[in-house]
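Project outcomes to date are best conveyed with an example. Our students and postdoctoral researchers have been running inverse folding experiments weekly, and each run begins with a structure described purely in tokens. The record below, which covers 356 residues, was selected by the lab manager from last quarter's runs and is presented without edits.
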């Protein structure tokens, strides 16, 4: 007897490995540094906006997310028709590959980079083309440009790169875009854009304005601290944004998520006070690690990267014993989020004691 079978590519989809919760240790506060979450509570006024939305939970969300589109349109000075929202920026990545790739089409991206990229590509029956990052964790944009063929439909540029940390400069991105054919979609994934502090930083919005094949994806999960609500947005030329909305999940972004995102956009001063505090902590951590003899890649997100190779799981275990859980990539390295001051202090202590 036969049974229904999924498409052959479904069996090839790599699993997404979420950051582990902290291990409960009696007498010790444990910290989760494995998911790049914002350690601060919601911004002032956000909880109240969410509570107001809860009272309408018997009604479907605004499928058009009209108030959220209006708020984003005002903030970035772009037409609402150039926007699309989804369940986090990862939801937008899935939709972009689905909307622009036929089975067998190629998607070029750096590796290691965001773990969801090969999942989204394989789920769409497309073909992923992984281009190794440079020794310092940066995108090899020359190699990525050379990897584009007549089968390439999408290129993903993660800046800052998750999990290694470095960001692309505007000059590098401009030179790359000059080499990519205009019929290839270039996705500038700026999930951590608020944390970038570097000369010639990429301006994703200005870049989209200059190119008909560029889409910028961002999220409320990181700097805004709305990871549990899953809200991301894309800024793109009207035809690309329309394609994203066409393949979006109906009612995907909940009423409370839309309310939280709008309230967060209205509180930019408080937001950037928190972001600046995290960046200050990031600088302290990176300085401490380098003083202890670690070669840490440039960190432009809210995390740091340890290139550990075969010692990766040993480092993760040592961190766990100290009451902090990190995100190991077996055989490659560990990504560690910038968290509470005490958690960061423990990371520095673990790193100082761990053999280089």
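After processing, the design step wrote out the following sequence:
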């Amino acid at each position: 007897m036969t049974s229904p079978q999924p498409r052959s590519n479904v069996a090839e989809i790599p699993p997404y490995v979420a950051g582990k919760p902290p291990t409960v240790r009696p007498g010790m506060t444990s910290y989760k540094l494995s998911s790049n979450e914002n350690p601060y509570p919601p911004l002032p006024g956000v909880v109240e906006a969410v509570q107001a939305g809860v009272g309408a939970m018997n009604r479907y969300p605004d499928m058009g997310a009209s108030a959220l589109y209006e708020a984003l349109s005002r903030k970035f000075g772009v037409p609402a028709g150039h926007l699309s929202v989804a369940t986090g920026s990862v939801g937008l990545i899935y939709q972009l590959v689905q909307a622009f790739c036929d089975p067998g089409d190629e998607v070029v991206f750096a590796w290691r980079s965001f773990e969801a990229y090969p999942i989204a590509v394989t789920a769409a029956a497309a073909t992923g083309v992984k281009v190794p990052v440079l020794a310092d964790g940066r995108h090899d944009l020359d190699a990525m440009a050379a990897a584009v063929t007549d089968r390439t439909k999408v290129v993903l540029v993660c800046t800052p790169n998750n999990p290694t940390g470095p960001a692309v400069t505007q000059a590098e991105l401009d030179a790359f875009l000059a080499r990519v054919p205009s019929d290839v979609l270039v996705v500038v994934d700026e999930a951590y854009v608020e944390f970038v502090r570097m000369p010639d930083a990429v301006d994703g919005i200005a870049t989209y304005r200059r190119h008909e094949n560029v889409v910028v994806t961002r999220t409320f999960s990181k700097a805004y601290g709305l990871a549990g609500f899953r809200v991301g947005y894309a800024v793109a030329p009207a035809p690309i944004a329309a394609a994203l909305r066409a393949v979006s999940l109906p009612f995907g972004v909940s009423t409370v998520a839309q309310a939280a995102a709008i309230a967060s956009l209205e509180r930019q001063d408080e937001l950037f006070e928190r972001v600046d505090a995290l960046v200050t902590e990031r600088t302290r951590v990176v300085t401490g690690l380098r003083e202890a003899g670690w070669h840490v890649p440039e960190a432009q997100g809210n995390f740091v990267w340890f290139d550990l190779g075969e010692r990766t799981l040993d480092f993760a275990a040592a961190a766990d014993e100290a009451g902090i859980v990190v995100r190991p990539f077996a055989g490659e390295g560990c990504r560690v989020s910038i968290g509470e001051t005490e958690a960061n202090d423990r990371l520095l202590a673990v790193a100082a004691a761990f053999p280089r």
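The chain has a mean pLDDT of 95. Residues 340 and 352 are 18 Å apart (CA to CA). The training component of this project remains on track.
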